Amino acid sequence: MSIAEAHDMPVARELLIPPSPPRAPKTMTALGRMLAMRESILGTWSQRAYEEDIIQGRFFGRSSFILNTPDAIRHVLVDNYENYTRTPAGLRVLRPILGEGLLIAEGRAWKYQRRTLAPAFTPRAVTTLIPHMLAATDDTIVKLKAASNAPVDLREAMQRMTLEIAGRTMFSFGMDRHGAALRDFVMEYGARLARPHFLDLLLPLNWPSPQDFSRARFRKRWTAFVGMLMAERRAAGKNEGAPPNDLFDLMGAARDPETGEAFTDEQLGDQVATMILAGHETTATALFWSLYLLSLDPVTQEQVAAEVQGATVNGALDLDRLKFTRAVVDETMRLYPPAFLIARAAAGPDTIAGMPVRKNDVILIAPWLLHRHEKLWRDPNAFVPSRFMTGTPPDRFAYLPFGVGARVCIGAHFALVEATLALAKMIGAFRVGLLDKAPVMPLGVVTTQPDRSPRFAITPR
C-alpha cells in the first residue's frame, strides 16, 4: 500500500487549504535565489520540488540534491549518517546561540552529549515535568480570561507561555524577571543574525564573514545571560535528598555511561541554551499554527473541545485520551514543520539512489517539501487531522517534524506532550476566532514562522 493510499480518507466536507507561499518560477538566477533566501527559503522552491523524487542542481559551485524519497532520506540520515555533517552556513548561524550543544555537535562530542542527556528525556523523566507544563498553561489561561474582551496576540501569548514552561522545567522558577530579556535575545538574533548572507554561504567556515563579528558580540552577551540564570538556579538549591525535579537537576546529575564524566560548566551552559531555545521557540510556533488552523476550521475546533471535555477526569486531563488533539498537533507540524530544512554536506564520496555524490556536495531534506509532496500525501496542502487517526502511520521517512535516525530530536516526546496538553487546555477554555481575515503566510527563518501576528478573539467556554 502506498503512502497516498494509506492516507486516502473520506472527508465529507470541503477541505481547508491554509495559506502558503507562492511557488517559485521554474528557473531562478543565483542572485534571485539568494535574494529570495534572505526573505524566506520557502519561496525558493518551484512546483517540481513538490512532484519529483530527487532534484539535482548547483549551489555555489557544488552539486546539490533535494531528496524527496523515503529510501534516499533513510540512506543519508540513518544508514550512512556519519558521512553527512552540518553545512558551514548552518554552523555559522546556529553556533553563536547554541554553542557546542547537542543540536550542532558532531562526532565523538555529539555521541558523548547524547549518551549523557538521554536519561533526562525518557518518557518517565518527562512525566515528572508535566506539573510544570500544566501550571504555566493554567496561569496563561487565567491571564487571557482577564483580557478576553480585547483582541489577543496569541503568537506572543504562546511564546510567553512556552518560555515560562521552559523556565520552570529547566530551573523550577518562573521567567517573570528574565522572560523579557530572553525574548529580546531571541528576537534580536532572529531579526539580525539568523538569516544567511551571501558571504556566509561562500566563505570557508574558518574565514569569518562580516556577520560573524556581530554574532561573536552577541554570543558574549548571550552566554553571560545564560550563566546568570544557572547561577541563580544554583543559589536557590534544592531540598537535600530530594530527587531531581527539573532539567537542570537532571542534566547536572547526568554522567556519561561509558566514562562517568559530567558536563563542564561551559558544556552545561550550551545544553541549557539549546534546550530553552529549541524547546520554547519551536513549541510556541507549533501552538500558534495549531490555533490559527483551528480558528479557520471551527468544526475541527469543536471536535477538539468535545474530546477535551471527555478527557477531563476529576478536573485533570488524561493525556492518553487526547488522541484527536494529538492528531491536530501532528497535522499542524506536517503543514508547518518547525524545522523546515535539514541541510547536510557530504564529508566524503557516496552514492544516493544511483547518483554519485562528491565530497562537500550539499544534501537538502526539506520537511516543508516532503510533508506536502504530491507523491506521498493525499490532499497534501489540506488540513486533515484525521489522516493521523487511521491506525496506519505515515512512512517514518516521509514525516520528519523532529528529524529521524540517530540525530532525531532528543526532546521530541517532551515537545509533543507539552503541545498536546497546552492545546487541549487552550481549546477547552476558549473558543478561538480570527479578527484579522488577511492570510498569514509562513516564512522559513530558523523555524517556520508566521509573517505577522494576527489578532484573535477568544471567548471563554
From TrEMBL:
Annotated heme binding sites: 409
Keyword Heme: yes
Leader sequence residues: none
Pfam families referenced in this protein's UniProt entry, alphabetically: p450
Record bears the keyword Heme: yes
Family: Belongs to the cytochrome P450 family.
This protein's name: Unspecific monooxygenase
